[in-house]
Design a protein that fits this description.
377 residues; alpha/beta; 9-stranded mixed sheet; 3-stranded antiparallel sheet; 12 strands; elongated
Amino acid sequence: MYIVTQLFIEKKMLEEELLGVLRLQATPKIGDIIAKKLIQTTGSAAQIFKEKKSSLLKIDGIGEFIVKQLLNEKNHKKAVTEIDYLKKNKTKYHYFLDADYPKNLKNCIDSPILFFSDGAVNWNTNKIISIVGTRKITKYGRDFCNQLVKDLAPYHPVIVSGFAYGIDICAHKAAIENELQTIAVLAHGLDEIYPKTHKKYMRNVMDNGGFITEFWHNESPMRENFLKRNRVVAGISKTTIVIESAEKGGSLVTADIANSYHRDVFALPGRINDIYSKGCNNLIKNNQAHLLSSAEDIVQMLNWDLQKEKQPKQQQLFVQLNATEQKVYDYLQKNGKQLLDVIALDCAIPVYQLSSILIQMELNGVIKPLPGKLFEV
């Protein structure tokens, strides 16, 4: 009898804490930084709403207006409605003090105190990268994005983006095509979908990762939500990659946030007159991003080791090379070790294509990579 009662009490306590967290989220003017301060000062989210008004006012940064908002019963009713939804739909949620909260995100001061997920997202990897950029993607950006993800595939990264038009959906689709996990960070609740035309991709994303959001189930995709969402895209990743951006845009905000978190930022350069390369060119020019020319730039900067991801392969004595691979092989055999950029120039092969070719030739034991983007046979 005692055991049953104790389990009931523990379950009730957990629900009470979740209710307190949701009530904090429902309170206007209470952001994640203030919410965390309140939780850490009082000991728990539930305890905040048991404290006397005078005690709350003694907390640094908490004034009459905030206390009045905290004690508003309308927010309590909203939280009760949301917790009923979570229980009914068995929605997964992640609290910033829980062990399953993503480590990268936990290190951000303004990370969500609670977010929700749908799908089979695996956080147990350090190879999480965000790919962002313009919604008005060009062929240049699309081709580079597809090739980049393909070249990174042997390292098994998790690809994060915002499920929007342009670069976002291109990155998700490329991840799925290369059997990589992908995470779509939403600017609305899990019961909504934006844009509607991307509903057809939802099942594939679910099968290869999933969706996460800090917004309640029926929250609409309001303008301010997209800017708020950007900090999650930047914070959950080890590095942020910007592929095409105009002089102003949401992806530049994401890059700025990533820099504030002391994360690596990469940007794809373009011609100086191209509208959708101006943002990337400015990031590079102002030392706010590393210049990105190929997957190898990311691999070297982040110190990824392919041998840790794949079992050592016995060198093949007889490898069937295609025409382009044979061209590269013959060039290296004749000229000795060469830089990636020099090989690309002399063999008339775009850098992003050559990177993929070199990785495949390396896996087949045909060529050997050397420090400083050098290769030899």
